[in-house]
Amino acid sequence: MNSAGPLLHGLCVDSTFEDIPVIDFTDGSSSDFAKRRALANLIRDASINVGFFYLANHGISEDNISGALEAGKRFFSLDTARKIELNIDKSTSFKGYTALLQENVNPTGLGDLHEGFDIGWEPLINSPSFTDDDTHTVRKFTPGAMSGTNSWPKNLPGFREAVLTYYHDAIKLGKLLFPLFALALDLAEDFFDDKTTRPAAIMRLLHYPPQASKIDNEDRQIGIGEHTDYECFTLLWQDSVGGLQVKNAAGKWIDAVHIPGTIVVNLGDQFARWTNDVFKSTPHRAINRSGQERYSIPLFFGTNYDVLLDPIPTCISPDSPAKYEVITAGDYVKSRLEATYNK
Question: Other C-beta atoms within 10 Å of 132: how many?
């Protein structure tokens, strides 16, 4: 018998999963409440027991995915000196380029074998809200501890447009998910609306070079070490190379294989804190032993940075009081990133 708040009463909870569920998102914006409720029930089951699921029929076009992927490949093929000009250490809000081994998400690790390029919210170029005076900076759109401008490479035509096009497609998908998460938590569908008016969403282009077994150091130096994500949830596009693994409650690593036409969704620590651990933020890692280059594009979707992560009422009870101190979303994410980058 569990004591994790009223939401779980009568539900079977088992996190020793062997498979990651695939959920058809066709009814994600259906006008039929019964269909949305049924979809929310599937999301609830995956969120409580696994913390990961695949979304099929997610609505992001393959052309826009390919555009962002090719843009990332062009950027990562640049000379190291050009990429280092945009090093994330120069940003107070963790935007820009991360070099190989610069990041270390697992405190017991020896550095992560990937390079990345990180951006935060800004409007699409030529959209009504784009008010840039300088084609390489954008004003702050999201106040809070993590607010700041993006850093863009110069003389890389089409890069910014392709990346932002995919970014906004993923933002749209994330906004469609929040009402379903609300229903999954037995809340009103609009519960998160006023908390996600200024999308606090960091997106990364990631490149994992092939790694040889001899440099694994007993899994202490891999593509990205064992970790949980920081925000509410992550929307991950991954290529067919594979390497993503998810850890179940029994300590077994389950392969999150590439399934064509899907986006991987995994829950993060903000949702775990907010739901008093009713929703699972599940440890995962990536190891690229394929002999090929691996690419992925995660978008980490959180609330407005100034939102307080008060425990959600359906997730606490006298038998299961709040476990975590209340903190703003931005302060929490910033503290986790500071630890990752040793700041």
Answer: 13
